Amino acid sequence: MANILVTGSKGQLGTELRKTGFTLLDEVFYTDLPELDITDEQAVWNFVREKEIDTIVNCAAYTAVEQAEEEKERAAFINTTAVANLAKVAAAEDCLLIHISTDYVFDGTATVPYTEKDRPCPQNVYGMTKWEGERAIQKSGCLAVILRTAWLYSANGNNFVKTILRLASEKGEVSVVADQIGTPTYAADLAKVIVEIVAENELENTVEIYHYTNEGACSWYEFAREIVAQSGIECKVHPLTTAQYPTKAKRPAYAILDKTKIKRRYRIEIPLWQEALGRCLTALSETDKG
């Protein structure tokens, strides 16, 4: 039995965690603003002590990659300062902290999948603030699992899948970057892994870092083509280069994460990204019908 605090519960991953659920013996507190402001250290102390929390799952994050270039302080406040608050309280109260990080901590210059031992070198504000959040956890001395993921999407919130579906329906033609490679991740699959980690609650080291995405790899262009194909929408998808689609934030050209460590540790089978996408599209279809 555990008393679990889930932050950022209204986001994509937090919503999927609520759907997946933990064990019947666990008491779970799903929070977001205004229930708990994790940038307020005293509020975190009060909540954890009052509810006798022993496990914190931090799904809260500033994820607007482009906007972060203009809102550096706000991004750092949520992705670094708030994480430091959680880690400090977790260390003092002997809680397990599970924190979600990103492939954007890497520079994207690799030619083989990044392992947990590769040194981060973020190339944009979002990636840097997430990396600083990781470092705050490591400095705190708390018991923690850092889960790096990538290209997260779900049937909830705003994400690439829903954007492509909308543009495909409205315009019948989209152009997407084809020279940035990574792996889409269905939030529902990541949620199941988090639940499994919480259930086992046994770490070999004070801080463990794992990589988790769905299996396989593709470009954003290939991802968009698969979304259109599986949805059955009549739409032409055109490839673009990064140079043809300039953005404020520099994006990794190659951001594939090696998942060997988490597969061995938790003996999990990870679904292919195409199959996971199909399940998400089905969930979206059922939501539209409902």
UniProtKB/TrEMBL annotation:
* GO BP terms: dTDP-rhamnose biosynthetic process
The catalysed reaction is: dTDP-beta-L-rhamnose + NADP(+) = dTDP-4-dehydro-beta-L-rhamnose + NADPH + H(+)
Pfam assignment, any one: RmlD_sub_bind
Pathway(s) where this gene product acts: Carbohydrate biosynthesis; dTDP-L-rhamnose biosynthesis
UniProt lists the family membership as follows: Belongs to the dTDP-4-dehydrorhamnose reductase family.
Q: Describe its function.
A: Catalyzes the reduction of dTDP-6-deoxy-L-lyxo-4-hexulose to yield dTDP-L-rhamnose.
What protein name does the entry list?
dTDP-4-dehydrorhamnose reductase
The record's listing under CDD domains reads: dTDP_HR_like_SDR_e
Q: Which organism is it from?
A: Odoribacter laneus YIT 12061
Task: Please provide one cellular component term from the Gene Ontology annotations of this protein.
Answer: cytosol
Keywords in UniProt for this one?
NADP, Oxidoreductase
User: Which residue range or ranges hold the RmlD-like substrate binding domain?
Assistant: 3-284
InterPro entries referenced in this protein's UniProt entry, alphabetically: dTDP_dehydrorham_reduct (IPR005913), NAD(P)-bd_dom_sf (IPR036291), RmlD-like-bd (IPR029903)
The Enzyme Commission number assigned here is 1.1.1.133
| Gene Ontology MF term list | dTDP-4-dehydrorhamnose reductase activity
